[in-house]
Each structure stands twice: as structure tokens, then as C-alpha cells.
Amino acid sequence: MRISQIVAMGRNHVIGREGGLPWHLSGDLKFFKATTMGKPIVMGRKTFESIGRPLPGRPNIVITRQQDYAPEGVSVCATLEEALDKAKTEAERLGVEDVMIIGGAQIYASSLNLTDRLYITEVDLAPDGDAHFPEFDRNNWQEISRETVEAVDDIPEFAFVIYDRRS
Question: C-alpha dihedral over 34, 118, 86, 62, to 10 degrees?
């Protein structure tokens, strides 16, 4: 079982601003959907609320300390450990290899040391933001693929990069 994180971040590690994304990249949204479809997704409550609904085609697992939090269509867990156990059970049931962590900043930071693979959309911008992907030592990660999408009009250049943890 592989624990993976998927994120789009700017050069300055910004991933969010005021509960939303600091850009709109339809190519990244398509990549996110294709990469997570059919796999359990783990997220924090704020990320779930910014999306506004369960994402279809994949088990949605939300981490929150709010004991009475019970939105329809999601599994709610109190801790990261509980969420990952639930996600691994779902992955086995579905016959998939990946558990996908989709945010936000606190969940990325607290699970980075447990993560085996990073799917990072590196956006060639340095926007203002209030949510950041944690700094990580790239020496501990091996880039296994990179696909660059050239800038067009008001859409910045970005690259889909996959990193695997070095053993």
C-alpha cells in the first residue's frame, strides 16, 4: 500500500488563499481527477468545505476534531492515523495501490513523513497565500517523471512532477 500526496503549489510553496486555490488551471484539475479517481482520498475539514461536496468516484475521508461533524457522503475520522487506516481498508476493498492525501497544509505537513509518493503540480508563479506545502528535502526524493505544460495567454507554465521517496 502506497501513501501518496497530490498538490499544486507555486514556486514559494503557496497552495491556497482564503480557502481557495490561487489560480485556475483546468489541466491541473483534470490531472487531479485522473490521478485520484477510484482511490480513497484523505483531507482535512477545511479542504472538504472549500470543495463543498464529496468528490464522486472515490471514497472521501475527512479529518476533523469536531465530534458532531457528519456531512453526507463522507467518512469522518478524528485523527490522521484513523483516516489512513480507513483509507487503507478502502484501498484494499477497491483493489487499488494508492491512498491519496489531498490537503490541506496541516494534513500535508503531518503526513509527509509517512508519504511514499508526491504528485506535485509545480506552478511557475509565486502568489500571495495563507496555506503552504511544507518544505521538504528533495535529496530524500527521486523525480520519476516530469511533464511540462507551456504558458499560454494568462495561464502560467506548470509541470506535473512525480517524486518517490528514496529508500
Answer: -80
- The CATH number of 2-165, from 3.30.160.270, 3.40.50.1980, 3.40.1160.10, 3.40.430.10, is 3.40.430.10
Q: Whole-prediction pTM value?
A: 0.95
Which residue ranges make up each domain of the chain? 2-165
Give the pLDDT confidence of 118-145 residue by residue, as tens digits.
999 999 999 999 999 999 999 999 999 9
40 contacts 90 by C-beta, under 8 angstroms: yes
Amino acid at 137: D
Report the pLDDT value the prediction gives residue 39, as an integer from 0 to 100: 98
The Cα–Cα gap between 22 and 66 comes to: 27
Residue bearing cell 494534513: 107
Residue 53 carries which side chain, given as an amino acid letter?
Answer: R
The neighbour count for residue 22, using CB atoms within 10 Å, is: 20
Q: Which residue has the cell 528533495?
A: 138
Q: Give the residue from 31, 21, 44 showing the smallest Cα distance to 104.
A: 44
pLDDT tens digit string along 76-92? Answer: 999 999 999 999 999 99
**Torsion sign across C-alpha atoms 166, 118, 105, 81:** negative
